[in-house]
User: Fold this.
Amino acid sequence: EPEVTQTPSHQVTQMGQEVILRCVPISNHLYFYWYRQILGQKVEFLVSFYNNEISEKSEIFDDQFSVERPDGSNFTLKIRSTKLEDSAMYFCASSGWRSQETQYFGPGTRLLVL
Amino acid sequence: SQQGEEDPQALSIQEGENATMNCSYKTSINNLQWYRQNSGRGLVHLILIRSNEREKHSGRLRVTLDTSKKSSSLLITASRAADTASYFCATAFSNDMRFGAGTRLTVKP
Assistant:
């Protein structure tokens, strides 16, 4: 069964460093998403992406964040200058031809900013 | 806010019993989805119910949706220890999905 994959599974970085989190969505999906979950808290929407552009973003997704689909398979989330409060689990998700269809989540990348 | 809020926050039952979790939300939705998350792991999609549907079944899961009350419920029948996890409802209106804080379900063997 096709699945969303994410790399790395864990990343430790120093405050102020840039990190890139990578995702490979399900191959025939058109909508892509990033979410984050701070330890013990709810899953929070960051951004949705369709047709090579951001379609919606939350208030969390400020200028420190950017997303890119550099090729036909990868979908990346970049945090330009990490802060301690960026420590969280980051989930990528994808859905099919309609944005409101079921979103399939990857296993997540646990980011720790020191 | 469109996001769902689950109730109760935590639920502990014996294996074989039924578990009911509720979700309330505040704005219009296109659909409502329930997800499950084992501790520290990814989210697994359980079931999607559209705004024009009232009830849906999938195996031991039964989901209801009452758009007039802006609420949904997830019923897990004949629970098993392996059902122990956090359960989240998520509401979708446009291109994002908003999650509630979840119900932590513990099923004791």
Remarks:
- The mean pLDDT of chain B is 90.
- Chain B touches chain A through 25 residues (CB under 8 Å).
- The CA atoms of residues 60 and 95 of chain B lie 30 Å apart.
